[in-house]
């Protein structure tokens, strides 16, 4: 049974019906789509780390998936961009300007997502500049606590490595970065998404969609994930590798 079959197992309401329901009420939730039903009254809080040189699709894809997830679950979903250097704006790898970024506050998050960017341009803004500066890796190193899942995709996983969070842990990253991540002590898996419980990583760029859809499925239920795929007209692909610590 592949991941798509597992993801769809137990679905009691088709995505078309769900979309019609959400048009009438954003509070719609299907019977089986309550992965965190016991926490339905508390927001699922997602923070996405931002820095100059960040890859645009790395941060916009998870932002859209998590934001839209709120249409398919009774549990409120809050998504914000945050920066380890305080409230500010950043400029992405291709020049996109993002304003209104909030201060770093992992104690207020259930999920912290770290995108990548600029890995092949060591003299430009991006992952290497952030590692050299040290502020973001130190903030990431101090972030883990019970109840927080730290996730990253593409070369953002190297930022987690610089923070000491991937050493000895199953993980993945962009195919051109895997050798470096392995040399730094990560237990690299050839999977689209690697779920090791409180550490979830994903491969390159577009895999931010898979990362977000998988975490929606894990935290909010299978129905919201399936319905999101229908809304986005995108089918999650690739293998999700999950350890015994994966939920």
Your description of this structure?
- The structure is a single chain.
- The chain is an alpha/beta fold and 247 residues long.
- It has one domain (3-242): Class I glutamine amidotransferase (GATase) domain (Rossmann fold, 3-Layer(aba) Sandwich).
- Helix content is 34%, strand content 19%.
- It contains 9 helices and 11 strands.
- It has helices spanning 3-8, 15-24, 56-69, 127-133, 135-142, 156-162, 178-183, 207-220, 222-232, and strands at residues 44-49, 77-83, 88-91, 97-103, 111-114, 149-153, 170-171, 187-188, 193-195, 199-202, 240-242.
- The strands form 2 sheets. It has a 9-stranded mixed β-sheet, with helices on both faces.
- Helix 3 packs parallel to helix 8 (207-220) and helix 5 (135-142) packs across helix 6 (156-162).
- The relative contact order is 0.18.
- Mean pLDDT is 87; it is low at 1-34.
């Amino acid at each position: 049974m592949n991941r798509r079959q597992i993801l769809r197992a137990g679905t009691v309401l088709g995505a078309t019906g769900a979309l019609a329901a959400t048009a009438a009420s954003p509070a719609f939730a299907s019977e089986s789509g309550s992965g965190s039903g016991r926490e339905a009254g508390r927001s699922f809080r997602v923070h996405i780390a931002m820095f100059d040189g960040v890859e645009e699709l790395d941060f916009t894809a998870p932002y859209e998936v998590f934001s839209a997830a709120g249409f398919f679950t009774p549990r409120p979903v809050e998504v914000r961009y945050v920066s380890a250097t305080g409230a500010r704006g950043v400029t992405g790898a291709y020049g996109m300007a993002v304003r209104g970024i909030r201060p770093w506050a992992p104690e207020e998050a259930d999920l912290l997502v770290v995108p990548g960017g600029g890995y092949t341009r060591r003299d430009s803004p991006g992952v290497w500049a952030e590692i050299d500066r040290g502020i973001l890796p130190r903030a990431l190193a101090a972030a883990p606590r019970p109840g927080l899942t730290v996730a990253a995709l593409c070369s953002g996983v190297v930022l987690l490595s610089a923070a000491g969070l991937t050493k000895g842990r199953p993980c993945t990253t962009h195919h051109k970065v895997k050798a470096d991540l392995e040399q730094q002590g990560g237990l690299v898996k050839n999977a689209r998404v690697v779920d090791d419980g409180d550490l979830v990583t994903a491969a390159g760029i577009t895999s931010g969609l898979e990362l977000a859809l998988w975490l929606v499925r894990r935290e909010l239920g299978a129905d919201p994930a399936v319905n999101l795929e229908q809304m986005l007209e995108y089918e999650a692909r690739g293998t999700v590798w999950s350890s015994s610590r994966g939920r």
